[in-house]
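Exercise 7.
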Amino acid sequence: MQFSVVNFGDVDLGNRIDAEYFQPTYLYIENKLIEKHATPLRAFCYITGSAFYPAATHLYETGDLTFIRCVDCIPYPIITSRQDDLFEKIPQAFADEHKNIKRLTKGEIVITKVGTPCYASIIHDINDVALSRTVLGLKHIKNINPYYLVAFLRSKYGFLQLFRERELTIQFQLTLDRVGNVLVFKPINKFLEELIADCFSFHEVLKRKFENLFNEAENLVLGELGLSNWQSKHQLSFVKNYSDTEQADRIDAEYFQPKYDEIVKAIKSYPGGWDALGNLVKLKDKNFDPQDKVEYKYIELSNIAGNGEITDCMVEEGQDLPGRARRKVATGDVIVSSIEGSLSSIALIEKEYEQALCSTGFHIINSKSLNAETLLVFMKSIVGQLQLKKGCSGTILTAINQDEFKQVVLPKINVTIQNQIQQKITESFNLRKQSKHLLECAKRAVEIAIEQGEDKAIKLLQEQAKEAGL
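Solution. The predicted structure, written as C-alpha cells, is:
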C-alpha cells in the first residue's frame, strides 16, 4: 500500500484534492525538480490549442493542409513529411477561415490532449500544420532546444507530470493552464542539450535508411510481378456480366473495379506460379483463453505503426485484458489487420513478442513456401493492400472476413528473391532498433542528468554514439 502525508495548507481546495494527485511518485518528481531549480514550461513557449471550429471530417478527402490528431503523435516523437500518407488533411481555406484552428511550424511541439494524452512530438520538417481539438501546441519556443524539450517531456520527469495534471471531465484531458505549470529542467551545460538534439538527428538518419530498405524490398516484389510502374486507376464506369455478381455474391460496384483484375492477372502470370492464400499459408484462428492471474503482452491495432513496427503493447493480467485478446502469436508470424481503414496495420512478430496475445481483429499467418519477410512486404504493398480492400464487406464496421482473406492471390516468389527480401527487412529492422534506442538514450540522459548529474548524462550519450559508430 502506498500513501502520502500532505499538509492541509498545501492543498488548494479550489484546485486539486484528489488523492491520486499526491501519489509518492508525483511528489518525488515535483520535489526533485524544485531542488534542481526547474522552470515552468510556460516560461519557454506560448501554449495554444484549437477550439470551437465546425466538424471537418467530411473535408479530409479534399484537404491539402496536414491536420495533426492525437493518433499521429503517440508512436512518433518526431513528426516528418515522410508520414504524409498517414495524416488526415483539411483545406487550407477552411483553416484560414476558422481562426480558432491553431497552426504550428517546424521546430514547434505537439502534445496529445485527449484520448491518450501526455505524449509530446516535434514537428521536424513540415512548414505548416493545423491542430485538431485532440492536441495542443507549444509555439515560439525560446531559451531551450526544442528537441531537448521533447526528450524531457517524453522522459518520466516530463510525462508523469503531464499525466498528473490530467483533469477528468467526460474523459481525461489536459488543459493549457495545467500544461504551463509543468516544471522543466534546463541543463546548465548547453552541450547536453546539443547531444540530445543530435540523438534525434541520428534517429532520423537511421529511420530514413530503414525505410529505404523496406521500399527496396517492396520494389523487389513489384518488379518480380512486372508491376514496378503500375498505377491504380479508379474507373467511373465499366461492364461486368451478371453471372460475375452471382458467383461473387456481391453487387457493389467497387468490388468489380478493373484495377483488382489487373493485379490478379499479373500475379497469375508470374512464371513461378501462384495460389490462393488459403493454400499457401497456415491461418491461426483458434481462440486462446488467458488465465486470470497470468500476465500477458497484448498487441492491438493501435500498436502497429505505418511502417509495420509494433510500437508498444499492453501488459496486463488475463482477467484485465479486453475480450478481443484471444489470439496467441509466435516469432515469425505475420499479423494482418482485417478492419478496413487499418488494413496497412501489418507486422512481423519478433522474439520480444513470442507468445504474446493479439486482437481478434488480426488474421495471423505463416508459411513454409513464403518466408515471413516476403509475406509482410507483399501484404503491405499496393498489390496486397488492394486485394484486402476488395475483400472488405459489412455495414457498421467493414472488414475482410476469413473466407475472403483466404481468396487473396499470392505469387510463389522465387527463393532467391525471397532471400534478398529477407536480408533487406532484417537489416531494416536492425536499423529501426538502433534508431529507437537512440531516442531511449536521449530520454534516459535527461533522467540521469537530474538524478546523477549532467557529466554522467553526457558520458552516457558519448558512449552510445561511439558504440553506434556515429
